[in-house]
Design a protein that fits this description.
heterodimer, A: 404 residues, mainly alpha, Ribonucleotide Reductase, subunit A, 1% strand, B: 144 residues, alpha/beta, Nonspecific Lipid-transfer Protein, Chain A, two-stranded parallel sheet
């Protein structure tokens, strides 16, 4: 050292920095912004001279300022009146979304009053902006098994690229290959319709019901995975896709005007028929890949149905005046499933070939298709009854009732 | 050697699957499965990653299960022998799902369709449960 430091502030100041301090900062390669911030933060000019003379780098100076600023924090945010002290229990399934629903955090109100993204149980910040949700009614979207279903979806997920033994698929006769290609083409389209519908509705649900948003996100992902997997099945053997579906059954899904309508048409009507189809395809699989593929898809679909049935039951129990409304949605879904069947010759014939064991036995295949339709309908009616709508067979859409 | 059907036989399977990483990797399973073999009935409980209970029950108690598997003794024997001979990978026509699909009245039964749907929801887990029987010697004995 030995050198005398000019620590006396000069009278000439620019941006609060004396000429002497400015000259020294420039000679020591200290950015002036650091000098300015330090002075505003209450650091004395003399201390800055000493720091530069002592060889402190600009980076060290900046770190020192950050540390000082931390000390100045008032921590007001940490003193807000949210509930504390309830420790979550980690159970056999780990720390689940239901396990952290404790104390007031478990309170899911019938009407959620907040239009913002505020997580349930967080302190309200005045002035937070509205996110434009349209669903604030618990009954519209809720079911009591949502947490369980969400965790299960995460636990039982699968990877089409590596979990399906694709190498087990050997060339099938042309008619059988064409049939499975057609079926997979239409299943791809159905899953795409589900993606479109849920993509639209999941954003409408307010954050008071985060379990709904979480579960619907898994359904979206499942539908994407099914689309991927069925497309792979159609293309893995080099035989390709079939013809586009008529798409009648997608119309009420696309045109649903409220969440309950969409959920009824997707999770009660269409998914019910689709689950039976997955079971058929797993049962009549021609290789281990198809067994695995359709068994896994059926597991996912049965989970979606578990929501559909419980959601419908919850809605009717809490808003019994909507019972007839839900029946109308069921009828609308049934009407379009029936229209679809009547107009969809490719799917009907592909299923008959699959069930008969080839185009030579298509007559037998059509007879088996009638039996399958009967069982498919019985399972559907069973789910409607489980949801709390008894005797639905008496008002079943007439074209479908023929399968009873 | 364990006799089928018996509590001992199901407990042997329970011990095998509870120590099996493969079945754990399939994910959680919450279901009460019934098994009906002629006039014998059993209840097998699955909770989270484990098979947590096996007991013999009355036929009437099958109504308390989510679903119960009901087939002729010959079908049970054919299925289990096939699983044993194939090292735990049954032929496609002898999977639980295919037997259910091909049987006119089904293999999985319940008065409540939404509870029966657990048969499909955890299909792989139940299949793995029975596939594990390939690791034990089974004595087939028609219940009296």
């Amino acid at each position: 050292m030995g050198q005398k430091t000019d620590t006396k502030p000069a009278t000439s100041l620019t941006d609060g920095i004396s000429d002497a301090l400015r000259r020294k900062a420039e000679s020591k390669n200290w950015p002036l912004i650091i000098i300015e911030r330090a002075l505003k933060g209450g650091v004395k000019e003399e201390s800055l001279h000493q720091a530069m003379d002592a060889g402190m780098t600009p980076l060290q100076a900046r770190q020192m300022l950050i540390e000082e600023r931390k000390i100045e924090l008032n921590m007001a945010w940490s003193k807000v009146d949210t509930e504390r002290g309830n420790r979550a229990k980690i159970g056999k399934k780990g720390l689940t979304i239901d396990a952290i629903n404790i104390g007031s955090y478990a309170d899911v109100p019938d009407i959620w009053p907040d239009q913002t993204m505020r997580p349930r149980g967080a302190f309200v910040r005045p002035g937070a902006v509205s996110m434009g949700y349209t669903i604030y009614s618990k009954a519209e979207v809720w079911s009591d098994n949502l947490g369980e279903l969400y965790e299960e979806a995460i636990q039982r997920r699968w990877r089409p690229a590596t979990d399906i033994p694709w190498e087990s698929i050997s060339p099938l006769p042309e008619d059988r290959e064409r049939a499975i290609g057609q079926i997979c083409t239409e299943l791809c389209e159905y899953n795409y319709a589900v993606i479109l519908a849920l993509g639209k509705w999941v954003r409408e649900v307010s954050y008071g019901y985060h379990e709904v948003k979480l579960f619907l996100s898994t359904v979206l992902f499942d539908a994407g995975r099914h689309y991927e997997a069925f497309r792979k099945r159609a293309l893995v053997n080099g035989r390709g896709l079939g013809v586009q579906a008529t798409g009648d059954r997608f119309m009420p899904i696309r045109e649903a005007l409220c969440y309950a309508e969409m959920a009824t048409v997707v999770f009660m009507v269409n998914d019910s028929f689709v689950l039976s189809l997955y079971q058929l395809l797993a049962a009549l699989a021609q290789n281990d890949a198809e067994v695995e593929l359709f068994t896994l898809a059926a597991q996912d679909k049965a989970r979606h149905l578990a929501y559909g049935v419980d959601h419908t039951r919850f809605l009717i129990e809490h808003q019994p005046e909507r019972r007839d409304e839900i029946r109308r949605y069921l009828s609308k879904g049934e009407e379009y499933v029936a229209k679809d069947r009547a107009s969809d010759t490719p799917m009907r014939e592909a299923l008959a070939i699959h069930l008969g064991g080839g185009v030579k036995h298509i007559g037998d295949g059509f007879r088996r298709l009638d039996d399958f339709r009967h069982r498919q309908l019985q399972a559907y009616l069973g789910r409607v009854e489980a949801a709390g709508l008894e005797d639905h067979e008496n008002i079943l859409w007439p074209e479908l009732a023929k399968d009873l | 050697m364990a006799k089928f059907p018996s509590v001992e036989w199901f407990k042997a399977i329970q011990d095998l699957v509870n120590g099996d990483d493969g079945i754990r990797k399939l994910g959680t399973c919450d279901a009460v499965m019934g098994v009906k073999v002629q006039d014998k009935a059993f209840e097998i409980t699955f909770e989270a990653f484990d098979c947590t209970g096996v007991r013999e029950i009355s036929e009437a108690e099958l109504a308390n299960t989510d679903f119960y598997l009901d087939a002729s003794y010959e079908t049970w024997q054919e299925m289990l022998e096939n699983i044993s001979q194939s090292g735990g990978q049954p032929d496609r026509h002898l999977t639980l799902n295919t037997i259910d699909f091909l049987a006119p009245d089904g293999f999985a039964k319940s008065d409540d369709q939404s509870r029966k749907d657990r048969f499909y929801r955890y299909g792989q887990t139940f299949q793995q449960f029975f596939n594990a029987s390939a690791e034990i010697k089974t004595e087939f004995a028609v219940p009296a």
